[in-house]
Amino acid sequence: MNNSLFIKRNKELNFSKDKVLDVITTPNYLNETHPFCKKNTIVSWPGIGSKDVLEYLNGLTFERDFTYWDKDGYDLTIGTKNGPKSKVKWRLDGNVDKSELSIQIHTHSLRKFPGPLYLIPFISQIRPQLNSYLDSVLNGIEYYLENNKPVPRNHFGKHKWFS
Q: How confident is the model over 40-61, as pLDDT tens digits?
């Protein structure tokens, strides 16, 4: 059994799909929009094969490798350099007036837990922390779009994994 579960959060935005797409496909955009980002560094950009490095406020560093990219969003894998990776799907829908951005994380396997026991840490710890994290990331993008300035760090509250 794979033991991969997913978390998905959505955010309606009062901005055109094109405007939101411009933001989330700009090199280093996490420096402006991500409330837990200390530094976002591009390795290669844009499109399929893009790669960047995200250093969180607490010093944790993740690599992001983009495996799919089009006008409706992108897919990537994220994780520490030699550690397990999670799959993430960013999707954007909308028109010239409004849009909806969703982020879905397929967590890496919880192989150390036998059978369905992996559901215990997923439900009790992983899901609530990732829901909070994704809400902050989506709110950061909205903040940036509304204010045209970088989101302050930990603006929506600290996160025990990334602050």
A: 999 999 999 999 999 999 999 9
| CA dist., res. 19 & res. 77, Å (int) | 24
Assess contact for 26 and 40: CB atoms under 8 A. Answer: no
Token code pair at residue 160: 């025990």
**Number of helical H runs and strand E runs in the chain:** 4, 7
Which residues is 100 bridged to in the sheet?
12, 93
The whole-model pTM stands at: 0.93
> To the nearest whole percent, how much of the chain has pLDDT over 70?
93
Nearest to 57 by CA among 137, 158, 140: 158
Angle at 136 between CA 86 and CA 72, to 5 degrees: 60
Distance CA 51, CA 27 (A): 10
